[in-house]
Amino acid sequence: xxxxxxxxxxxxxxxxxxxxxxxxxxxxxxxxxxxxxxxxxxxxxxxxxxxxxxxxxxxxxxxxxxxxxxxxxxxxxxxxxxxxxxxxxxxxxxxxxxxxxxxxxxxxxxxxxxxxxxxxxxxxxxxxxxxxxxxxxx
Length: 138
Fold this sequence. Notes:
The chain has strands at about 20-25, 30-35, 50-55, 70, 75-80, 90-95, 100, 105-110, 125, 135. By secondary structure, the protein is mainly beta. The strands form 3 sheets. Strands 3, 4, 6, 7 and 8 form a 5-stranded antiparallel beta sheet that branches. Strands 1-2-5 form a 3-stranded antiparallel beta sheet, with no helix packed on it. Strands 9-10 form a two-stranded antiparallel sheet. The protein is rod-shaped. The relative contact order is 0.24.
């Protein structure tokens, strides 16, 4: 008679990051990020959640409510909001299993321009000449 045996190894931290991480559908104050799970051969266990972090590239301002956690069943996109217009952002995503975290995958993007939030302050006119004016404001 033949015997069959099986063994299960313990989970290890994922060896591969989430795949196809992309920032898209940008506006002046929001954008969407999308991704796919890590390579199945590099998950080393069951992915139970993803952690998304976004911050300004210069200044390091982090939008409210970040980092954000997304649990599985599969959610492979998120809307990032409360952003500043015409600002460069870097977003990072990690996959998490019971043993630990994957390396991050990152993408960068710039939000669209928007109308000014207020009128110019300290508006003055200087150097009045016959055919030209100089305007100064803050």
